[in-house]
């Protein structure tokens, strides 16, 4: 209560003497302010460029990666080579660091067939982009084509890290009966269909039938490939005819080491032996049956029908679906480059 109010209470008689007595007994408090109230001075924004990146927690993996990248740029380290070049040897194209060839884990020089000049230049580019010997020895993910080429060369002498040809063929054949390309979703009931949109089953048939037709008429003529029909239940997996299995295995055994590793990479990436076979057969100069009209982008599209269908309905999850899409294209592109022979002038 203010001082003026208390004086008014003293002067005016109150019909409630007890209440008046209680009010008069309260202490009188006064607040004194000697500093004037000053308004804030707003300063103009004079910063240029994009806003700074938001701070990241100390334990963040992205933050740690950024710190490593910043440290590498500030102190790139040293590398023992000054230039990367391609030199023609008797058995193909060797990638040299100055005068020394790049070697496999078994200490064999990496020599790419002369029919694959683009692959040789891509491997050389990987080493041109390295900025230190330490990165070359510890971060093998920065030289994926080099690792694949070393796998091909060391395949003839299998070891703990390099499977043999037979093991590679058996690993690829496991995908035949459960191939992603030939799995069809159940038919959508009429009451749940969107008249302006294709069903998942229709999209799967649209991608699978041209590939299967090409394989059974051009690459493996006379064979028959059974589909896994979702209307029969997903537990009822269709087994391919024994004759089809025999023909495909014999075809795999006839591939070169380079085409076999390319096929394995495409199969593991797409979860489909049929997609990998179409991609390798289209572009390999050693197989020589394709018109080079079906590339790794079509292979990636055929391998991701269900993902595209679901994301069109529910949307993409950032840093998940988009990253997986680019990773699939990257891996199938590497398989394509491994199988690719010399490009003709007409292409």
List keywords for this structure.
transit peptide, ATP12_ATP_synth-F1-assembly_N, 4-stranded antiparallel β-sheet, 347 residues, ATP12_ortho_dom_sf, two-stranded parallel sheet, chaperone, ATP12_ATP_synth-F1-assembly
Task: Describe this entry's structure for a reader.
- This protein has 2 domains: 84-154, ATP12-like, CATH 3.30.2180.10; 165-339, ATP12-like fold (Orthogonal Bundle), CATH 1.10.3580.10.
- Helices cover 47% and strands 6% of the residues.
- It contains 14 helices and 6 strands.
- The protein has helices at 3-11, 17-24, 61-74, 117-128, 133-138, 144-154, 165-173, 200-219, 242-253, 257-270, 273-283, 296-303, 305-314, 321-339; strands at 84-89, 92-97, 100-101, 111-112, 183-184, 228-229.
- Strands 1, 2, 3 and 4 form a 4-stranded antiparallel sheet that branches. Strands 5-6 form a two-stranded parallel ribbon.
- Helix 8 (200-219) packs across helix 11.
- Keywords: Chaperone, Mitochondrion, Transit peptide.
Major sheet? 4 strands, antiparallel
Distance between the termini: 95 Å
Annotated CATH homologous superfamily of the largest domain = ATP12 ATPase
**How much helical structure, as a percent, in the residues?**
40-55%
CATH class of the largest domain: Mainly Alpha
Category by helix and strand content:
mainly alpha
Helix/strand order, N-terminal first: HHHEEEEHHHHEHEHHHHHH
Which fold name fills CATH's third level, the topology of the largest domain? ATP12-like fold
Number of helices: 14
Shape: flat
As for the number of domains, it is 2
Arithmetic mean pLDDT:
84
Q: Report low-confidence residues grouped into runs of 5 or more.
A: none
How many β-strand runs?
A: 6
Give the CATH architecture of the largest domain: Orthogonal Bundle
How much beta, percentage-wise? 5-15%
Radius of gyration: 35 Å
């Amino acid at each position: 209560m203010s001082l003026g109010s208390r004086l008014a209470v003293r002067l005016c008689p109150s019909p409630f003497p007890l209440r008046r007595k209680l009010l008069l007994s309260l202490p009188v408090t006064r607040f004194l302010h000697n500093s004037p109230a000053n308004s804030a001075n707003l300063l103009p924004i004079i910063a240029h460029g994009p806003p700074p990146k938001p701070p990241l927690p100390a334990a963040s993996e992205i933050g740690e990666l950024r710190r490593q990248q910043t440290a590498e740029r500030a102190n790139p380290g040293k590398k023992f080579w000054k230039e990367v070049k391609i030199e023609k040897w008797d058995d193909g194209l060797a990638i040299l660091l100055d005068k020394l060839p790049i070697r496999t884990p078994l200490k064999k020089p990496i020599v790419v067939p002369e029919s694959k000049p683009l692959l040789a230049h891509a491997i050389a580019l990987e080493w041109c982009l390295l900025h230190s010997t330490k990165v070359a020895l510890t971060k093998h993910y920065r030289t994926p084509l080099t690792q694949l080429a070393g796998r091909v060369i060391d395949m003839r002498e299998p070891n703990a890290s390099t499977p043999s040809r037979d093991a590679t063929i058996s690993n690829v054949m496991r995908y035949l009966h459960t191939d992603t390309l030939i799995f069809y979703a159940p038919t959508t009931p009429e009451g749940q269909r969107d008249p302006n949109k294709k069903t998942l089953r229709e999209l799967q048939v649209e991608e699978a039938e041209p590939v299967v037709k090409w394989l059974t008429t051009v690459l493996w003529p006379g064979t028959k490939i059974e589909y896994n029909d979702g209307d029969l239940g997903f537990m009822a997996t269709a087994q391919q005819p024994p004759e089809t299995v025999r023909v495909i295995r014999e075809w795999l055994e006839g591939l070169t080491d380079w085409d076999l590793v390319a096929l394995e990479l495409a199969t593991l990436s797409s979860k489909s032996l049929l997609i990998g076979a179409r991609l390798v057969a289209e572009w390999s100069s050693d197989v020589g049956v394709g018109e080079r009209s079906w590339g790794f982008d079509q292979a990636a599209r055929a391998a991701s029908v269900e993902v595209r269908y679901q994301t069109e309905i529910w949307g993409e999850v950032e840093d998940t679906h988009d990253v997986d899409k680019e990773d699939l294209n990257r891996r199938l592109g590497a398989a394509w480059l491994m199988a690719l022979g010399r490009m003709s002038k007409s292409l």
